[in-house]
TrEMBL record:
<dbReference type="Pfam" id="PF04380">
    <property type="entry name" value="BMFP"/>
</dbReference>
<dbReference type="InterPro" id="IPR007475">
    <property type="entry name" value="UbiK"/>
</dbReference>
<feature type="coiled-coil region">
    <location>
        <begin position="60"/>
        <end position="87"/>
    </location>
</feature>
<keyword id="KW-0175">Coiled coil</keyword>
<protein>
    <submittedName>
        <fullName>Accessory factor UbiK family protein</fullName>
    </submittedName>
</protein>
C-alpha cells in the first residue's frame, strides 16, 4: 500500500485521468447533439442535396445540347425548303 506524497500523486493522476475521460465524453456528446440539430435545421430548409443538383445539371446540359442540335437541323431544313421554293 502506497503512503505519503506518492499516494497523493497517484490519486491526483487518477482524478485527472477520470476528468479527461469525462470531458472527452462530454465533447463527443456535444458534437453529436450539434450535428443532429444542424441536420434537423438543414432538413427543415428543404435544400437540395449535391447529388440531386449534379444530376439536374447534367440533365440540363444534355437538354441544351439536344436543343442546339435540333435548332441546327431546323435551320438546315429551312434552308432546303427555301432553296426548293426558289427553283
Amino acid at each position: 500500500m502506497t503512503t505519503g506524497p506518492n499516494r497523493i500523486f497517484d490519486d491526483f493522476a487518477k482524478l485527472m485521468t477520470d476528468a479527461a475521460g469525462a470531458a472527452q465524453g462530454m465533447r463527443r456528446e456535444a458534437e453529436t447533439m450539434f450535428q443532429a440539430q444542424a441536420e434537423k435545421f438543414l432538413a427543415s430548409m428543404d435544400l437540395v442535396q449535391r447529388e440531386e443538383f449534379e444530376a439536374m445539371k447534367e440533365a440540363a446540359l444534355s437538354a441544351s445540347a439536344r436543343a442546339e442540335a435540333l435548332a441546327e437541323r431546323v435551320d438546315a431544313l429551312e434552308a432546303r425548303v427555301a432553296k426548293l421554293e426558289d427553283t
